[in-house]
Amino acid sequence: MSSARSEVPTQRGLEATSLTQVRTDSMALCPACGGRRLTSIAMTLTDGSPVDFTSCHTCEYKTWLQNGKALDIDVVLAKAQKHK
Ligand SMILES: [Zn+2]
What we know:
Number of helices: 1
Radius of gyration: 18 Å
Strand content: 25-35%
Structural class: mainly beta
Order of helices and strands: EEEEEH
Bound molecules: zinc ion
Helix content: under 10%
Number of strands: 5
């Protein structure tokens, strides 16, 4: 109970160690409701396009960004489909 050791959890910060990262960006505001409860997930679509998926916990607004530009939902769906 009286261990003198103080173990500091290792924090790798923003180091990209996995394909999918979940982060909350406190600077971002939801464009739909102005809320701050946004969750951004970096993901890769089926066609290999890296995108940032952002969803709002307050109003369920969702958006996809590729290279900082918003993608139309139809484009996202098209990219997410496997081509036959
Ligand atoms: Zn919202």
